[in-house]
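Section 3.1: Structural characterization of target chains.
Under the original work plan, the team committed to producing a structural model for every single-chain target entering the pipeline before any wet-lab resources were allocated. The record below documents one such target. The sequence was received from the expression subgroup and is listed exactly as submitted; it comprises 265 residues.
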Amino acid sequence: MPVRPKSLVVAIIPARYASTRFPGKPLVQIKGKTLIQRTFESAKRCPLIDKLIVATDDQRIFDHVQSFGGSVVMTPEDCPTGSDRLAFVVRNDKSLQNAEMIINVQGDEPCLDPEVLTQLIQILRSDSTAVMSTAAFRLEEEDAYNPNSPKVVLDLHGNALYFSRSLIPGGRTLKFQQDIPVYKHVGIYAFRPDFLLKYGSLPMTPLQRAEDLEQLKVLEHGYKIKVAIVKSVSADVNTPEDIKKVEKELCKQNSSSSQAESVPH
């Protein structure tokens, strides 16, 4: 009997220099390492990822990733989204088109818990009829009404039913209810390679426009998204002010690691 080739799980980190809110963000220093290097190293800790690539449109980022030993691919400047940057990489590398899945790891996640990536991979593996997976975690009341925190509701099989900037489910009172879970959508995705290549060409849809949430077009076109419920989400970097928040989280992670190493076995 022929040996079946090992499934390939590929993670790609899209990284562009010209961020509107934070130009040069991937190269900002956070406790002695750049944001992109910390994100790369965090993603690399996931044992289920076989290949990790940075996709960038900037020579400075390209050279820096090579300097710390990372794999990097140059992409066009006019890629409108991170998923388009991923699609460019996959379209131009036939070996990636045969991968089991392609993961979009946001380039501003220096404290990313590798367990989140593990759950993302496992839940897509659990359903061969799903074209992609994403993640969510349970919100507390103070964040439930924030329109900048998109919510997601699920069916009984862990599939996304709808994404919204509003409180969902709202119930009859349209108020947060402690006994009814409200889940925040986390913008990290795992794609089947063939669907990733199709994703960018899907026409915009009415609900996508209404909510300004791109993932809704997947549901509106009739495709299935699996949702992994994770315990929490790490601090990300959107503005220069977020750096201090990330540094505090890194200190907590380092402290926890030191305590774990000091426990006798």
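Confidence is low (pLDDT under 50) at residues 1-5, 257-263.
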